[in-house]
Design brief:
- One of its GO terms (molecular function) is 3'-5'-RNA exonuclease activity.
- Keywords: Exosome, Magnesium.
- It holds the Pfam family Rrp44_S1.
- One of its GO terms (biological process) is rRNA catabolic process.
- The protein is 30% helix and 23% strand.
- It is an alpha+beta fold.
- The chain folds into three domains: 42 residues, no CATH class; 367 residues, no CATH class; 110 residues, OB fold (Dihydrolipoamide Acetyltransferase, E2P).
- The strands form eight sheets. The chain has a seven-stranded mixed β-sheet.
- α1 runs antiparallel to α13, α7 packs across α8 and α8 packs across α12.
Length: 684
C-alpha cells in the first residue's frame, strides 16, 4: 500500500519521512479504531518529484522493474563488434530465405527500437499479388521454461509510460536481435498470402519461419508523405542518403509503389470488416515532448494518419488468420482474444447525447452502431463525431485473452473488429501472449507436416490460468500508462501561471451534463475533465454581456441536454451539450492523492483562437488510430469505468495485504464522487 505522509496526522505505523511517498504494510485493523496498525516498508520518493511519482505508479500497479538476473542474461545470445551474431547454416536450411526476393520494410513510430513487425508486397509471375507480414521470431531465442521465459511470463507485457518503457525481454533481444531493424539479417515468422490481382481476395496462405533483411525502417510520418506524393521526405530516410541519383529514383519508385499497394489492400480489407460491423472507436493518445534536459516542452495529441490504418489492417489480418490456424489444430488449447458485446444499458448516455444533435444511434449490433456513428457527422464541428465515438468506446466491454477449451465457439467473436476468431501474434517482443501463440503456430505447422511437436503446449486449465494473469497485467499496463500521462499533464501545467500563461487558456467542448457541472474535452491537449458550475461557497457561474464568467448567488437547473445557471438577480446562462467554451487549465494540488487537472469555464463562448483547426482533416484522416488493434482504445477507456480493483497475488505475498479493496482505492473512489450524478447513479 502506498500513502502520502502528512504532518498533521499521526498514523499508528513506524515513523517515516514527511512529504514523501512511502510503502507501508498494514498489520492489523482493530474494529474499534478508525486507523489501521502497520509499519513502514520503504520510501518511494518525494511528493511531486517525477521519479517518486513514477515509482508510486509502478507500485500501485504491481509492476516490477528489477534488472534481469545474471542467470537470465547468461541465456542470451551474444552480438558484439568482436563477436557479431550471424544466421546459422542450420537455420538457413530450415527457413525460407526472403532476403534477396522480397522488399521488406517496417513502419513504426519515430525512434522505435523494438520493431516487432515488417511488411512486404510484390507481384507474382501469374499476375497476382503476394502480401507478407513478417514478425520477429522471439521463440527462437526464448525456449519454453527457460529462465528468461519464466521472467517474460511473469512480466507478461512491456510497460509503456509517457516518457519511458520497461521491457518484457532484455534489450539484446527487444532492441537488437529480435528487432527487425533495417539492413540486418533477422529471423522471422511469416504469414504470406496470395491475393487476386484485382479483387484482392485471398487465394492461398502460407505460414512458416523465414529469414528477412528489412530494406527500410520508416517512421509513420515519412511513409504518409511518400503515400501522399511528397518526396522531399526522402532526405530524412537514412537508407536513401548515400545512393546515386539513378539508384535513388529507382528505389524510391519501388518503395512508393509498395506503400501505395499496401494501402489499397488495407482499404479493401477494412471495407470487408466494415461491411460486417467493425467499429471505428475514438481514443486520445498524448505524446509528451521533452527538451534536451528532459523537461516537458509540450503535450501533443497524436494525429491519425491513413498509414496507421494500413499497418494496423495488415496486422489484424495476420492475427485473424493465425487465430483460425491454431484453433483448427488445437481446438481445446488455443489462446485467442474475445471482445464480448457491451450491455445495451451502457449506451444510454451515448443515445441521449446524440439526440442533442438530432442524430439517432442504433446499438442493436456492431454493424448498426458503426453505421450510426458514420452518419453522426456535424459538418460544422468534427469534434462532435469524435466525442460520440469516445462515448461508444466507454460503453464497451474489455477484450480478453482466453483458452478455447473454456468457451463455446459462439463466444469467440470479437465485437469491435467484427471477426469470428482473433488472437495476438504480431508483437512477441512486448506481449507474452504472442509468444504463446507463436509456439502454437509452430506446433500447428509441425502437426500438418506429421512432425513431432517439440514444445510442450499448455493444457486448457494451465492456459486459462495464464490468460487470467496476462489479462491482469494488461490492465495494469493500461492503467499505469493512463496515470503517467495524467502525471505529465499535471507537471506540464503546474509551473505555469493560469491567470497569465496563454497555454493555460484553451477551447473546450462540453460532452456531458452533470448535476453541478459539466464534463469538458480539450482537443489541444487531449484532456477530459470536470468543470464545476457551482463552487464550494455555493455560488453559481454567471456570464455577463462580455461573456466572461463570475461567481454569484443563485441555483442550477439540469435538463437532459443542457444545464442552466440562474442568479438571484435574474441573470441566467445555459450550457448545452457540444457547446464550445473557453476554459482555464490549472493544477489542483493534493497532499493525499496525486495532483489533478482543474478546469474552469471563464467564458461561455469559444476560445478566440479555436484549436479545432488541428482536426480539420478529411473524414478518412479523422478515423481512429488503429495501431496494432482497434480495441486498445476500448480497453483504455473502459479503465475509467472500472469499479472493482483486481489486486495481484504478488502484492499479497510482498506486503501481506488483505484481499479486496485497499484503503487507498476507497479514498480514490471518494475523490471521484465529486460530480456524481445521483439521479441515475452514473459516476464520472
Amino acid at each position: 500500500m502506498t500513502v502520502r505522509t502528512r504532518p498533521w496526522e499521526t498514523p499508528r505505523v513506524s515513523p517515516c519521512p514527511q512529504d514523501f511517498r512511502v510503502v507501508v504494510r498494514i498489520d492489523s485493523w482493530e474494529s474499534t479504531s478508525v486507523y489501521p496498525n502497520g509499519h513502514f516498508v520503504r520510501v518511494l520518493g518525494r511528493i511531486g518529484d517525477l521519479e517518486g511519482e513514477i515509482a508510486t505508479i509502478l507500485v500501485e500497479n504491481s509492476i516490477s522493474v528489477v534488472p534481469f538476473s545474471e542467470a537470465q542474461m547468461c541465456e542470451m545470445p551474444v552480438n558484439t563488434p568482436g563477436n557479431p551474431w550471424k544466421v546459422s547454416p542450420e537455420e538457413e536450411r530450415e527457413r525460407k530465405d526472403l532476403r534477396e526476393t522480397h522488399l521488406v520494410f517496417s513502419i513504426d513510430p519515430k525512434g522505435c527500437e523494438d520493431v516487432d513487425d515488417t511488411l512486404s508486397v510484390r507481384t507474382l509471375t501469374n499476375g497476382n499479388l503476394e502480401l507478407g507480414v513478417h514478425i520477429a521470431d522471439v521463440t527462437h531465442f526464448v525456449p519454453p521454461n527457460s529462465y528468461i521465459d519464466i521472467e517474460a511470463r511473469t512480466r507478461a507485457t512491456t510497460y509503456y509510460l509517457a516518457d519511458r518503457r520497461y521491457d518484457m525481454l532484455p534489450s539484446i533481444l527487444s532492441a537488437d536481435l529480435c528487432s527487425l531493424l533495417g539492413g540486418v539479417d533477422r529471423y522471422a515468422v511469416s504469414v504470406i498470402w496470395e491475393l487476386d490481382k484485382t479483387s484482392y481476395e485471398i487465394k492461398k496462405v502460407w505460414y512458416g519461419r523465414t529469414i528477412i533483411r528489412s530494406a527500410y525502417k520508416l517512421f509513420y510520418e515519412a511513409a504518409q508523405e511518400l503515400l501522399d506524393g511528397n518526396f522531399h521526405i526522402v532526405d530524412d530516410i537514412p537508407e536513401f542518403r548515400d545512393l546515386d541519383e539513378k539508384s535513388r529514383q529507382a528505389k524510391l519508385e519501388e518503395l512508393v509503389w509498395a506503400i501505395g499497394k499496401l494501402t489499397d489492400i488495407a482499404r479493401h480489407i477494412r471495407a470487408k470488416r466494415d461491411h460486417c460491423g467493425a467499429l471505428e472507436l475514438e481514443g486520445v493518445e498524448i505524446r509528451v515532448q521533452l527538451d534536451e534536459k528532459k523537461n516537458i516542452h509540450d503535450l501533443i495529441p497524436k494525429q491519425p494518419l491513413e498509414v496507421h490504418e494500413t499497418v494496423a489492417e495488415c496486422m489484424i489480418l495476420a492475427n485473424h488468420w493465425v487465430a483460425k490456424k491454431i484453433w483448427e489444430s488445437f481446438p481445446h488449447q488455443a489462446l485467442l482474444r474475445q471482445h464480448p458485446p457491451p450491455h445495451q444499458e451502457f449506451f444510454s448516455e451515448l443515445r441521449e447525447c446524440a439526440k442533442a444533435k438530432a442524430f439517432f444511434i442504433d446499438t442493436r449490433s456492431n454493424k448498426t452502431l458503426a453505421d450510426s456513428l458514420d452518419n453522426a457527422n456535424d459538418p460544422n464541428d468534427p469534434i462532435v463525431n469524435r466525442l460520440l465515438r469516445s462515448m461508444a468506446t466507454q460503453a464497451m466491454s474489455n477484450a480478453l485473452y482466453f483458452s478455447t477449451g473454456s468457451c463455446a465457439e459462439e463466444e469467440f467473436h470479437h465485437y469491435g473488429l467484427a471477426l469470428d476468431k482473433y488472437t495476438h501474434f504480431t508483437s512477441p517482443i512486448r506481449r507474452y501472449s504472442d509468444i504463446v501463440v507463436h509456439r502454437l503456430l509452430m506446433a500447428a505447422i509441425s502437426k500438418d507436416k506429421k512432425m513431432e511437436i517439440k514444445d510442450n503446449l499448455f493444457s486448457n486449465k494451465d492456459l486459462e490460468e495464464l490468460c487470467r494473469h496476462i489479462n491482469n497485467r494488461n490492465r495494469a499496463a493500461q492503467h499505469s500508462q493512463k496515470q503517467s500521462t495524467e502525471l505529465f499533464q499535471c507537471m506540464y501545467f503546474k509551473d505555469k501561471d493560469p491567470e497569465n500563461e496563454e497555454r493555460c487558456i484553451s477551447d473546450g467542448v462540453i460532452y456531458s451534463i452533470r448535476t453541478n457541472g459539466v464534463l469538458v474535452f480539450i482537443p489541444r491537449f487531449g484532456i477530459k475533465g470536470a468543470a464545476y458550475l457551482r463552487n464550494k461557497d455555493g455560488l453559481v457561474i454567471s456570464c455577463g454581456s462580455d461573456s466572461r464568467s463570475e461567481w454569484k448567488p443563485g441555483s442550477l437547473q439540469r435538463f437532459q441536454n443542457k444545464i442552466t445557471s440562474t442568479t438571484t438577480g435574474g441573470e441566467s446562462v445555459t450550457f448545452h451539450l457540444f457547446d464550445h467554451v473557453t476554459v482555464r487549465i490549472s493544477v489542483q494540488a493534493s497532499r493525499c492523492h496525486s495532483d489533478t487537472i482543474r478546469l474552469e469555464i471563464i467564458s461561455n463562448k469559444p476560445y478566440m483562437i479555436p484549436d479545432t483547426e488541428l482536426f480539420h482533416q478529411s473524414s478518412l484522416l479523422l478515423k481512429s488510430d488503429l495501431v496494432k488493434e482497434v480495441t486498445r482504445s476500448v480497453e483504455e477507456a473502459q479503465l475509467a469505468q472500472e469499479v472493482k480493483v483486481n489486486v495481484i497475488q504478488e502484492d499479497y505475498q510482498k506486503y501481506c495485504q488483505t484481499k479486496g479493496r485497499s484503503l487507498y482505492t476507497l479514498l480514490e473512489e471518494i475523490r471521484d464522487l465529486a460530480l456524481l450524478d445521483v439521479s441515475n447513479s452514473y459516476g464520472m
